Amino acid sequence: MIAKQKLGAPAFITAVGILVLNDWYLKHTLANTLTGKLSDLAGLFAFPFFLSAFFSHRKVSIYVFTGLLFVAWKSPVVQPLIDIFNSLGIPVHRTIDYSDYLALIILPFSFYIFNRAKVDSMKPLVLNTTVVLSSLAFMATAMPPGKYTSFVEIDKTYTFNFSRRELISRLNMIQLEYLDDFNKYGGQADFDSKTNIFHSQGKKDTLAMILDFEKVKDADTIILRTSYAHVSISGNDSGSQMKLLSLYCFVPRAQQGKYKDKAIKFVEKNLVKKIQNYRYRKYR
Asked: Does residue 87 register a pLDDT over 50?
């Protein structure tokens, strides 16, 4: 394929180099807004360029698809899919920031440079090395940055104006709805009636655990796999509390304190608000 030789273009090599430097080093040491924007710009330049080198007859479609994929990736619409990957032990990370859409301006420049790039003769070893390193760079940009901690300690309590039984019921329904979304995206779960635990089909990794109101005690630590959280529950017939003990999240160990507020915001958006505003789905 002659177009593959375009992967030797200086602009493409530079973009991949920036992506590697940024995702494998700068994000680990700086972890700021600039590294995120740099990753978006380099990735949007290099990714469609890379694919077009293999499918040059589809280059227009590839560039359009890349733009649409980026818009979806930076929106909440793909969160259920990301949750599925993470629940399966495949760490996937992205930050929702609509200002990132400004990076889309790099796509027409990438398309122009691809069309203008010279087809140079690259030795097979050099070409294959470029392909492998580029592929690794694209995969790394979606991985969580840095060396990761398992849990961020939080110790924060949330109070609800409904009963402890209702709180447990809502937590169960939220987990069941997660499993429903899991199935919609092609996942399959097995249920162990003895432990009330859902596993990925044929595996023993826990996807969700249905809570038994009669068995859950105030001092118990409950692991909510669907929210990556450790919580405890207390209350009575007139009110209830959920204490957030810790939250699993992908953050650099050296910057755990810095990410504590982000971890809290994550669980408040994805769990606490869902509990407070829960509306039972109607199943036919």
From this structure: yes
Q: Write out pLDDT tens, residues 163-176.
A: 999 999 999 998 88
pLDDT at 63 over 90: yes
| Bridge partners (DSSP) listed for residue 215 | none
CA-to-CA dists, residue 33 to 23, 27, 30, 48, 144, angstroms: 13, 9, 9, 24, 15
CA 221 to chain centre: 25
- Element at 169 (helix H, strand E): helix 164-184
| pLDDT tens-place string over residues 37-52 | 888 898 899 999 999 9
Domain boundaries along the sequence of the chain: 2-140, 151-276
User: What kind of fold does domain 151-276 have according to CATH?
Assistant: Alpha-D-Glucose-1,6-Bisphosphate; Chain A, domain 4 (3.30.530)
CA dist 222 and 229 (Å) reads 8
Q: What is the full DSSP assignment across 3-34? A: GGGGGG-HHHHHHHHHHHHIIIIIHHHT-SHH
Of 64, 275, 92, give the one whose Cα is nearest residue 169.
275
Yes or no: say if 15 and 38 are a contact pair by the CB < 8 Å rule: no
* Alpha carbons 13 and 258: distance in angstroms, whole number: 34
Q: At 194, list the tokens.
A: 């003895």
Interatomic CA distance for residues 202 and 18, integer angstroms: 41
Q: What whole-number distance in Å separates Cα of residue 166 and Cα of residue 141?
A: 41
Residue 100 burial (C-beta neighbours within 10 Å; 0-12, 13-18, 19+): buried
> Which residues touch 39 (CB under 8 Å, ≥6 apart)?
19, 22, 23, 27, 141
148 vs 228, higher pLDDT: 228
More confident residue, 3 or 110: 110
